[in-house]
Amino acid sequence: MNMNVFKIFAIGLVAGFSGAAIFFLIGPQAPLQTSPPIQLPLVAANAVAQAPQASVATHKRPAPEYSVPPSFAQAAQASVGSVVHIRTAMKTRMPMNPWHEMLGYRAPEEVHQGSGSGVIIGDDGFIVTNNHVIDGAEEITVSMNDNRTYKAEIIGTDPSTDLAMLKISAEFPLPFVAFGNSDQVEIGDWVLAVGNPFDLTSTVTAGIVSAKARNINLLRARPDRGVFPIESFIQTDAAVNPGNSGGALINTRGELIGINTAIASRTGSYAGYSFAVPSTIVEKVAQDLMLYGEVQRAYLGIQIEPVNETIAEQLDMTEVKGCAITDLVPGSGAAESGLEIGDVVLAINGQEISDFPELQESVSRFHPGDEVMVRVWRNGEEREVSVQLKDRNGRHA
């Protein structure tokens, strides 16, 4: 056998073993013992909308219906034209060397300027703003959204609520914003803040109501001047900055539900929360200032302590709420009506009372001489007591 024949024979032998090996590796194998696949249920495409929900969904609370508007444009348009830019000017004398004063030199004057916002509440030109915006001002200028400018006069002020009323005279009826009911405002409601922050006219920001009946100890009591602070603010997270003071807090219907008054901040600029005087107080104060030039404020004539868990347990109350009467002012409406020390005030004219700010807000709506129904907790039960309110001097009117 020659060498060529041997090579051919060797190649054929290797090829045969290779083919057998490949056939063994990839050839047909015995079938595996597996379970048949489970068929998925089929639902006709046109029946998907009517298909019942999975049983687990029946244990979930049904989703609430929300009425969030797709845009705040309508509310903004209804209010922007009624919110004005207020600029104030006040002259003061600059400090000077006492020796110069002794020689008869007169200290030079300098003009201090300030700015804020205001809200037109009537087509005859009445404007509500914050007292601190115009306090001490010698000249007040009001600029409209359409760039018209007017001189304003002060109708009256109420430092107890930090509110003031101005008046401008125009040759035609002015746009104004209608009052809404701040009692109906709920935590979580959308609101708009409209004003002139940093001299940026007609600025609108949005947020929600974060809390109600906030007392932040903003206003200072001055008994010698008859100033007894009333604080029951609406708290929001709408952006409010310097210049927004006196501007409008608007609901989604474009109604006035508050006057923006303060911000919670360590820097002086917006840091998350702002506070507004509720419209129930604003409307009453505005009407009194327009009619009388001062606020006709009624008092119940009680000293109170907010009910806590200990007091509620002692009085067998089912809920921890209300204000417990700790003393009665002699000659007041409360003292003459039959209210007693130890009574817990729960509501006034149907308005629920849970703390002191709510009590203040509720009573502040009335005038001396008004009669109100006070619901109290006494001896393990609720009862109604009629009280005729008086002013701080004990007069009915």
How would you describe what is shown here?
The strands form three sheets. Strands 5-4-1-2-3-7-6 form a seven-stranded antiparallel β-sheet. A six-stranded antiparallel beta barrel has the order 8-9-10-13-12-11. Strands 14, 15, 16, 17, 18 and 19 form a six-stranded antiparallel β-sheet that branches. The protein is an alpha+beta fold and about 400 residues long. Helix content is about 20%, strand content about 30%. Residues about 1-60 have low confidence and may be disordered. It is globular. The relative contact order is 0.10. It folds into three domains: about 75-165, Trypsin-like serine proteases (Thrombin, subunit H); about 180-215 and about 225-290, Thrombin, subunit H, CATH 2.40.10; about 300-390, PDZ domain (Pdz3 Domain, Roll). The chain contains eight helices and 19 strands. The chain has helices at about 5-25, 75-80, 100, 130-135, 280-290, 310-315, 335, 355-365, and strands at about 85-95, 110-120, 125-130, 140-145, 150, 155-160, 165, 190-195, 205-215, 235, 250, 255-265, 275-280, 300-305, 325-330, 345-350, 350, 370-380, 380-390. It starts with a helix and ends in a 9-residue tail after the last strand. The longest helix is centred in the N-terminal third of the chain and has 24 residues, at about 5-25.
